[in-house]
Amino acid sequence: MSGEKLNTEYKQEYVSDIKKEVIAFANAEGGTVFVGICNDGAVKGVDDPDEVMLRIVNSLKDAIAPDVMPFVRVDSVAIEGRNVIEIQITTGTNRPYYLREKGLKPGGVYVRKGSSSQPMTEEGIREMLLQNSGRSFELCRSMTQELTFREFYREMELRGFEIGDAQMRTLKLIGEDGLYTNLALLLSDQCEVTTKIALFQGKDKEIFRDRKEFSGSLLKQLEDVYQYVDMANKTKASFSGLERTDTRDYPEEAIREALLNSIVHRDYSFSGSNLINIYEDRMEFVSLGGLVPGLEINSIFLGVSQSRNPGLAAVFYRMKLIESYGTGIGRIQRAYKNRKEQPKFETAKGVFRVTLPNRNEEIEELPFVVREVPVNYMMSVPNEKQQLLDYVRKNKVITRKEAEKLLGAGSTKAFRLLKELCGSGQLEQRKKGRLSIYTVNDNDNIQ
């Protein structure tokens, strides 16, 4: 017989690596593996074909995921008077196939190239997942299956939502095959996407003041990033006679909406980080993916919304982090109503950028005092927490809405401060979800 070809592989005897060849053929155009034939085509045969076939079938069933056996046929055939095992593989419909012990990694996924089987790159694996699933990135199988959800469970519990296997399937964190999806990966503690923030001195990138990179679940990144940006959002006070007016550089609502937009609508099939650049005169939110195909930049100003990640958007909506699709841009614009400088929304191939102008840059030659907040985003805000504690001491209880009104803050910030007070034992949460109230911890007294 002739030597190995594109769709033919010879093995002199049964070896465990046969499963790699089967995976490679199933992930490509199919092919045939012969056991009992040397690389040069010389037929050696096998002594006990039934025993060898049994070992092959058991090995393929146990070692390969998803189940490849519907696309594999194992037979004993006679070639040149000797018994040879013929393994016929057709292209699988649930690609990519991989070694269970290795997972969806380059060391576990193979594809046929020329007359050899080669490990696939991570980029190739992602592309095959998208091509063969017919689904969005977030609903494809996660390449990492060893996931934990401490932050996700904590956030859901704080909002009064029960979370278990059934809910994970409903939210599409677990697919029909029982495996975690990419949506689960994004919300897990092992999320591979990060958010990078650069704080610059001046109006260009010449001098860095600070750099931070935030990792973990997207929910954790959302909270940590918002705290950092909020601490960098300075307040200027202007005076007209005895009347003082405090103005923050950037509207909190605009920051919140721009941040949520950059997380919910980016294209996670790209491996890059979310980017936030803070200059003296502006703040930029840069996310990968650009607009969803079929939409133009003018479409978003008409309230049109086509979510690239509907599963992620649904989770954020359920957690009351977003209110409805297509309203974020309008909220940002309303936050700058009657201002000279307006937010900018720009798109290029694979990129979307929201630029928020610094409102206090418009104030010229007016006396003001600047409250410089340290860059360290982990610094506490004792005055605001004390306001909450004083309110509870006077009124016995406080709701999140009352906290927002008292502080003049958004829901995310008010919720965070209440959680921190509960975490320190100074307040106690009663009830959950929309009915949550916060009162003095029975085991602690407010001083």
Per-chain topology:
Elements (H helix, E strand, L loop, with lengths): L7 E4 L6 H9 L4 E5 L13 H15 E2 L6 E8 L2 E8 L8 E2 L10 E4 L2 E4 L2 H12 L16 H9 L6 H6 L11 H6 L7 E7 L5 E8 L3 H15 L2 E6 L2 E6 L3 H13 L9 E5 L3 E7 L8 H4 L9 H9 L9 H8 L8 E5 L2 E7 L10 E4 L10 H14 L1 E2 L1 H8 L3 H13 L3 E4 L6 E4 L7
Parallel strand pairs: 1-2, 9-13
Antiparallel strand pairs: 2-5, 3-6, 4-5, 7-8, 9-10, 11-12, 11-17, 13-14, 14-16, 15-16, 18-20, 19-20
Helix pairs in contact: 7-8, 8-11, 13-14
InterPro entries: RecG_C_sf, Schlafen_AlbA_2_dom, Schlafen_AlbA_2_dom_sf, WH-like_DNA-bd_sf
Pfam families: HATPase_c_4, SLFN_AlbA_2
Protein name: DNA binding domain-containing protein
pLDDT averaged over residues = 85
Largest β sheet strand count, sense and barrel closure: 6 strands, mixed
Low-confidence stretches: 364-382
The number of helices is: 14
Shape estimate:
elongated
Give the neighbour order of strands across the main sheet: 10-9-13-14-16-15
CATH topology of the largest domain: Heat Shock Protein 90
Mind telling me which CATH architecture of the largest domain this is? 2-Layer Sandwich
Calculate Rg over CA atoms. Answer: 29 Å
CATH class term of the largest domain: Alpha Beta
Helix content: 25-40%
Strand percentage lies at: 15-25%
Structural class: alpha+beta
Protein name: DNA binding domain-containing protein
Pfam families: HATPase_c_4, SLFN_AlbA_2
Domain Schlafen AlbA-2: 4-121
InterPro entries: RecG_C_sf (IPR038475), Schlafen_AlbA_2_dom (IPR007421), Schlafen_AlbA_2_dom_sf (IPR038461), WH-like_DNA-bd_sf (IPR036388)
